[in-house]
Amino acid sequence: MTRITPPPSRIYLLRHAKAQRPASGQKDFDRALSDKGYAAAEIVAEKAVEKDYKPDLVISSTALRCRQTADAIRRAMSPSTEFRYVDALYDATTDIYLEIISSQATNDSVMLVGHNPTIERTLEALIGHDALVSAIPDGFPTAGLAVVDSTPSGWVLTDFVTR
């Protein structure tokens, strides 16, 4: 498990919702959400609000499908939630995701909207392999939202929200 010293004391990891298959010649970066993906992003955003999950900061990959997923979060969250879009989250390593999280020393809670397999590997780095496999044995689904809290003994998965 990875040690990140709070703040943040709560980390939200959101995998982008289901994207369309790439059109001929289309860059992966430019893939939009499918109709099911749009619906799933809205549902997960609404569930997060119902559970009173309110990140201070949302950091999203600049890939179209992540920006569209983050837009669903923006519509559901309070206007005070800050949003940033970071190129480095696209095609990034787990170390980059963790570095971005740990650099948020002024925010108590931060949400990353990113891509698999890195979002799943980041969760695994925080909570450990056994906890990951126990919580999501079939892998990190699209539009899945992991809620991870800091405890004296390390990071624990508090909740996993899906559509």
UniProtKB/TrEMBL annotation:
It comes from the Bacteria. SMART domains: PGAM. Gene3D superfamilies: Phosphoglycerate mutase-like (3.40.50.1240). InterPro entries: His_Pase_superF_clade-1 (IPR013078), His_PPase_superfam (IPR029033). This is Histidine phosphatase family protein.
